[in-house]
Amino acid sequence: MKRLRDLEPDFWRAPSAHNTRPWTLTYAGEEAAVGWDPARALPISDPTGRDLRLSLGAFVECCLIVCADAGLHIAFRPDPGPLRAGFLHEAEGPYETDFTIADVRARVAGRGEYHAGRLPEEVPLEGMRRLPCRDLADLLRAADLCQSGDRKVTRELRSWLRLTRRHRRRFLDGLGDRALALTKAEALALRASLALYPALRRLGLPRVLAGASRELLDYDGDVLVLVGPAHEDMAEDMAKDMADVEPGRALMRNWLRLSALGYTTYPLSQIIDWEPTRRVLADRLGVADPRTLLHVARVGRLTAPAAPPARLRP
Ligand SMILES: Cc1cc2nc3c(=O)[nH]c(=O)nc-3n(C[C@H](O)[C@H](O)[C@H](O)COP(=O)(O)O)c2cc1C
């Protein structure tokens, strides 16, 4: 387990919603418990724990890949408990994976401009459905309108933004201006509009922001939707739900596969965060239970490299 500790900086390259980096690794004898810090959950924007589960799964997959590439024989055993998803433990052989530490280091979410072009059909994806970007432009606009008009969601998002160079957590976690692909002027405008949010909300700020988001999908590209098993609300049975980190593991493998082929993803969770747009999307995909839509992201080739986010080092 000592060698596991040395690999932690690469484990911590896993993605998480709002870059909250919610994971905890607690060493006990020959095992390490994978858990999460409730102070890093998003109770307002992720009330069912969907994104938390995905982030935990992505972290587990990341740990297994990094260990395998470093020559360690490590496996994951789901064993949900209070604030715990399961354990990393020694195994007979290495975790079998196509990916390496270099792949984990190279992956990054990209929110900049994308070249037009569809994802080739032959790119193999696990549990993901593809849709043309333009088919979702109306849903994104509606979801953004709802989200940016919601005071509590905006307050929670704001607490994870790191828009000034003086922010004390700038290098640790959250979303900075570079990772958000904002110019200096845009970062300033965002800060000002968030500071003045209550007033601007009444003056129609949500409509302006939602108008901008429409353009995001108004081009010839693809959106990917991860479809998985349904879950009950986290509040009802948090421990049981956390057992299922499999979709997050698949999400991580998909992102790594795409990244290795030169593609980047830009998650657009708001489309499934809001019940009405989630229902319409499920309808368009012919999916019977809207709760099984777990993740939405546009995918493509960036016109300029993406900036990595702040990454808390253990
Ligand atoms: C489950 C999940 C949901 C996410 N949802 C969004 C989203 O709605 N919008 C967004 O811009 N990024 C989203 N992200 C991307 C994270 O912000 C990103 O992973 C994090 O900032 C770390 O950056 P990295 O992926 O480049 O390492 C999501 C990531 C995960 C794992």
Describe the secondary structure blueprint for this structure.
Layout (H helix, E strand, L loop, with lengths): L1 H10 L11 E6 L2 E6 L13 H20 L4 E8 L2 E7 L10 H6 L21 E5 L4 H12 L2 H9 L1 E2 L12 E2 L7 H12 L1 H7 L1 H12 L5 E6 L10 H5 L3 H15 L3 E4 L2 H4 L1 H11 L7 E8 L14
Helix pairs in contact: 1-2, 2-10, 4-8
Flavin mononucleotide binds next to helix 2.
Highlighted features:
single chain, Nitroreductase-like, Nitroreductase family protein, NADH Oxidase, 39% helix, 314 residues, 10 strands, 4-stranded antiparallel beta sheet, 12 helices, alpha+beta, binds flavin mononucleotide
Mean pLDDT metric: 89
Strand content: 15-25%
The CATH architecture term of the domain at 2-106 is: 3-Layer(aba) Sandwich
- What is the topology, as strand order, of the major beta sheet? 1-2-4-3
Tally of strands? 10
The hetero molecules present are: flavin mononucleotide
- Outline the biggest β-sheet: 4 strands, antiparallel
Name of the CATH class of the domain at 2-106: Alpha Beta
Q: What is the CATH topology classification name of the domain at 2-106?
A: NADH Oxidase
Order of helices and strands: HEEHEEHEHHEEHHHEHHEHHE
Regions with pLDDT < 50 over 5+ consecutive residues? none
| CATH-level-4 superfamily name of the domain at 2-106 | NADH Oxidase
- Tell me roughly what share of residues is in helical segments: 25-40%
Radius of gyration: 19 Å
Structural class estimated from helices and strands:
alpha+beta
Termini separation (Å)?
15 Å
Q: What sort of overall outline do the alpha carbons produce when their principal axes are compared?
A: globular
Q: Number of helix segments?
A: 12
